[in-house]
Amino acid sequence: MLLIPCPWCGPREDDEFTFGGEADFPRPAEPEALTDEQWADYLFMRDNRRGRHREQWCHTAGCRRWFIVERDTVTNEILGAGTYGGSP
Amino acid sequence: MSQPFRLDHGGRVDRDTPLQFTFDGRPIDAFRGDTVASALLANGVTLVGRSFKYHRPRGIVSAGAEDPNAFVQLGHGARTLPNRLATVTAATPGLKVRHVNAWPTLEYDVMSAFGLVAPFIPAGFYYKTLMWPRRLWPLYEHFLRHAAGLGHAPDAPDPDRYDHVHAHCDVLVVGAGPAGLAAARAAARAGARVILADEQAEAGGSLLSTHERVDGLPAPRWADATTTELAATRGVTVLPNTTAFGLYESNLVLLAERLITDQPDSAGSENGARVWRVLPKQIVLATGAHERPLLFANNDRPGVMLAGAISTYVNRYAVAPGSRAVLFTNNDAAYRTALDLTDAGVPVAAIADVRSDPAGDLSSEVRAQGIAVHAGAVVRHAQGGRRVAAVELCSLDGAPLGAVECDLLGVSGGFAPALHLHAQARGPSEWDPTLAAFVPRGANGIHPAGAVAGQLGLADALRQGTQAGSTAAAAAGCSNGSDLEVPRANESTQAFIQPYWLPPGGLARAKPQFVDLHEDVTLDDLRLSLREGFESIEHVKRYTTLGMGPDQGKLANPLATGVIAELLGRDPASVGTPRHRPAYSPVSLGAIAGRHIGPLADPVRVTPMQDWHEAAGARFENVGQWRRAWYYPQPGESMHEAVARECLAVRHRVGILDYSTLGKIEITGPDAGEFLDRVYTNAWKRLRPGRCRYGLMLGEDGMIFDDGVTARLDDQRYLMFTSTSNAAPVLASLEQWLQTEWPDLRVYLTSVSEHWSNIALAGPRSRDVLAAAGTDIPLDRRDFPFMTFRQGHVAGVQARVFRISFSGELSYEINVPADCARHVWEALVDAGRPFGITPYGTETMHVLRAEKGFIIVGQETDGSVTPDDVGLGRLLSRRKDFLGKRSLSRPDSVRPDRKQLVGLLTDDPNQILPEGGHVVDSPGPRRPLPMRGHVTSSYFSPVLGRSIALAMVTGGRAALGERLYVATLHDNRWLPARSCHPVFYDPEGARQHV
Fold first, then answer.
1. Which of B291, B404, B640, B720 has the lowest tally of Cβ within 10 angstroms?
2. Are the Cβ atoms of A31 and B886 closer than 8 angstroms?
3. Residues in contact with B735: Cβ distance below 8 Å, sequence separation at least 6, in sequence order
4. What is the pTM of this model?
5. Where in the sequence is the domain holding A13, given as residue range(s)?
6. Domain total for chain A?
7. Does any domain span residue A30?
8. In a domain, A37, yes or no
9. Residue contacts between A and B (CB atoms, under 8 Å)
10. What is the pLDDT of residues B681-736, one digit of tens each?
11. Where are the beta strands (DSSP E) in B489-549?
């Protein structure tokens, strides 16, 4: 069980949340300007880092806000959480 | 004579409270305070089970949760409990205990005869032998299933109700031995909220079986006093009969509390169980250590026990597990047992000590008793069949030293910390050469104390426990400045251990030496595994089944580490142990499931009209969590007949459908139109208020994600309909884009699926029905045309009415507040009676939409289908970007041989194609046949009087009219059909516009 620190609601059990994959993959501003390779890279390729990992979580059964969690993928230690703009 | 092996005095059993239970139907006399195991031993029962593979006779080895043999079945019928350990099960009056894994009886087991024919089945035997010839596998399997297995499942559903308890505390102490009690006491005195859990019926652990004193009191009395103090302390919870079986991320600990009753019924003495989910701030692990067995031939004979367990049975339960003992050790612990046995009047014939110079106080005391101590000697063979009769000794280089008669052999190979929970938390361990074992170093918020931390002496354990309890309380924010008071006990020197893993060479190979008694894994199995290259301990485990099964190798794994290290000539630290996983001890499935069973396993969602549907005789189907009316059979009607009647009613008159389950999302804000433009493939900003539009939503991979109609309610407000089962994923996805990519958009999403019920009227007379039900909305086709929306009242209730159609008929979808939906539904049904209104369910809805070639996301699409594949390319805007647009020009998306949506008409109009059936060009002899596609939807169309089907077929759209064949699923036939345009009925769409 992961105790996930929702910036808006506080720490809650992980079954209240939905995992949204790696953070920091912004949608390209002009998709049509990309080559097939560049687009496929955005679409399919993730770093899957060992260690510190920034990822998206949504407090689905709570405030329904998406936010960023930094987690160590080896130890599952949660190192911090941040919002997409705005403060709790 | 009853209880012939019960000692005359001593022990903690309550001799004033005798009781009786049965073992395989035989009455067993016991006292309150006994475990099933101690009572069996008191009655001279040494054979308690047969081994897993070879059905060899097995006896009680330990006095705790680490026992590999003493698994029994409790109770009978629906509430029977398999795989319970006799060593931790309290003896209660009337309890029914049965052996497991022997047939027909424990004494005369047929399977053990295989030991005479094929002495031992080597590791990997099943893989190598029984797989060929393959056609015989069912026979092998039948045989193996009968031969293997421990215990029996209940013969009926469990009638018990199990609870989950969610608890928080400052300090959780696991284990109530000396370290655990000291830790709990220190933490409680610091003001911490404490939970103290112990798997045994009473707290105390090793304190209950020692003659030592604590704070001047006999150790058991100190344990009682401390437990009483703790139980009376506010904020402290003492949980006996409670096993901490799992430690997870965030230091969540799961406890299984067995609820014991003195009035056993069919469940035996356990009256259900509770699972505690405890989220402590700090954890003190005082889980103790397991004594390690030693290897010699026939080391599995009943009568071979751990030395410490013998002391426990003698001191705590006043039971002599034998009448003449030999001890075999590589450390000092067995000397204590020798003294305990001598005190109890059980003669100790000899001690074989691996060490060449077993000096020290204990050894002097033992020699003073006249017990023969053989230094530098080992037991190499236990003689006897169903019980040890004698042991053969030899020197470390294998020279025979003669045999000694005995019926009890106590072994001690040192102590391995019970670090299971610590390891589950991925806490690091270190090989401690002085203990020849892995010792946990502690982890974040986890404090090992006592024997689990390598402190085997009583005074050390009390000191470390006190310190750990105090440290944990302080770390949890509890400290009241009180001085630490360490319980006093005699200091003892740490026993030194001489590691002894492999018996001397030259022994008869025919005699097995069991590393894992529970799984019948022998030393030869480990040798074979290493010889064949499976050297990693995880590979050894999988190849030999070492450490598997209900006991999870509590005794076997620490021994195997040393054995493998020596066989490979490596450092044990580099060999390690197999990964420790929950559960530490077996937990009943009922306790794990708790209340999450039956209707509470998954929420059941129903609409406000559910009672009406039931009263109308509807059959239901599950759509996600929703229960939806499937069809409404009239008396004597088959499903086929009912659906045909419902379909024709909609096509010719009017039908009414409860469509409340559709997902509904209100999208508001100044940028709502821009937002829709980005998430839908078509254009939305210019949609006028009051109008509706069909929208297609893609994933970024260009594949269809969801579809549905969205209406513009007013300038800054849209209502989006999603498919029933996709409502939550669509909302989550929209929120993700909005919050993470486009936080600048001023848009707000609100799920209103539950707030608005949706009633669909469909059919040429639906306008008449709506008018008759009473509405202030002008219904004339010019005032309220197709694909528009109006607000007003229906049957006196505020309503949003949408002229949209999923049937191709004139249709109104009437949204009303859920509170009023039942009223409006009944008003429409009443008003519709003169027009022949017919309620219809999801099956008819599917037939009607298939006649029109409308896709259902998840039926025609499967996550690999683009809009163009299903003929919706016209919905793709060229003027703007939208999610997934770039992917539509990826090479894979424009492959010429993509599957495309077509209709299929069978040659035989009454032949209904199987959904999922493979579509091929011709059923020729070539195998495998190249696949052209698959059938996605298939029904009998009553209005057309023939079957229809939709299919995804490669290059299908350009070859309409081609001859195709569909494979049946079960009887290997090929059904001829021709492809056609996927709209079977009213291709011009005239009927929905009237």
1. B640
2. yes
3. A58, A64, A66, B749
4. 0.87
5. 1-24+50-88
6. 1
7. no
8. no
9. 52
10. 999 989 999 999 999 999 999 999 999 999 999 999 999 999 998 999 999 999 99
11. 514-516, 521-522
